[in-house]
Design goal:
Layout (H helix, E strand, L loop, with lengths): L2 H24 L3 E3 L2 E3 L4 E6 L8 E2 L6 E2 L1 H13 L2 E6 L2 H5 L2 H4 L5 E2 L7 H4 L2 E3 L4 E10 L7 H6 L4 E4 L3 H8 L5 E3 L2 H9 L5 E5 H8 L7 E13 L2 E3 L4 H17 L1 H9 L12
Parallel strand pairs: 3-6, 3-7, 10-11, 10-12
Antiparallel strand pairs: 1-2, 4-5, 8-14, 9-12, 9-13
Helix pairs in contact: 2-10
């Protein structure tokens, strides 16, 4: 055997060894109960922080907590793994890009079930009925979107949300903020006079004494429902398990306890056992 042949054989052997190592050791994913996980021992969820009461960072512990986190924790528990939360831009969530890139197994974040989203992502059964609220300073004399228009007030919204879509469909051109905290700050600093946001988020803000000068001035019943989102046609077992967990939580009272922990008294229309 010539030196060239030896070198070729050695190189091929090392390449094969490297390929084997990559296939066996580099892929940290796993399949549990038929569910594909991108990381062994974890159910990885994407969200866009902050979005209280659905998910936000606990200032004392640094952990991400909230309504959605508790729901997905139930799914993780059924799988015998822990939840790992990944903060990612909302744009990559609503387009399915984060899921397709393998950043997470499931997405939370108060994402409304919409036909255009269902085209390129799988979604769970609805887990939350939502409405939109208008928030403004007390005494602003606003009780509807018509008042916002009549008084020529500046309207703010969170970028990429259904609340923003809703007011745009009504003919408004709101100032768009990157996240919910920036939107709230826009109201506080006078950049806008009124903001539109998911009702539970606004109610969460109003529990903070720092926001005592503000109030909900109108509710917009948009018929929205939230779902948990997964990569299209990739993980049907996870979709099925998530639906089972949501149904079980509603029937055994767990859902109600989570709802009242993060949001407040649960209306009968929300479903769930006692």
């Amino acid at each position: 055997m010539s030196r060239g042949t030896v070198r070729w054989a050695l190189g091929a052997g090392l390449a094969a060894l490297a390929l084997t190592a990559t296939a066996c050791g580099g892929d940290e994913g796993a399949t549990v109960q038929g569910v594909k996980l991108i990381e062994k021992g974890a159910l990885t969820s994407c969200t866009h922080l902050p979005y209280p009461p659905f998910q936000s960072e606990d200032q004392k512990t640094g952990k991400v907590v909230g309504f959605d986190v508790d729901i997905i924790d139930l799914v993780a528990k059924r799988l015998g793994v822990t939840q790992k939360v990944v903060d990612t831009p909302f744009e990559t969530m609503r387009t399915g890009a984060a899921l397709n890139a393998g950043k997470c197994d499931i997405q939370m974040g108060g994402m409304t079930i919409k036909p255009d989203r269902v085209k390129f992502m799988d979604v769970s059964d609805p887990y939350f009925d939502a409405t939109q609220s208008l928030m403004a300073k007390k005494g602003a004399g606003v009780a509807s979107l018509d008042d916002v228009e009549a008084k020529d007030l500046k309207l703010g919204s969170q970028a990429g949300t259904t609340g923003e879509d809703y007011v745009k469909d009504k003919g408004f051109d709101p100032r768009s903020f990157d996240n919910s905290n920036a939107e709230l700050n826009g109201l506080r600093t006078g950049q806008v006079d009124v903001i539109v946001q998911d009702d539970p988020v606004v109610k969460g803000w109003l529990k903070d004494p720092a926001n005592s000068a503000y109030e909900i001035v109108a509710n917009l019943n948009t018929g929205e429902q939230y779902g948990m989102w997964m990569r299209k046609d990739h993980n049907p077992a996870l979709v099925k398990l998530t639906n089972e967990v949501i149904a079980q939580a509603k029937s055994d009272g767990t859902y109600k306890r989570i709802y009242e922990k993060w949001i407040g008294p649960m209306p009968e229309s929300a479903g769930g056992g006692s």
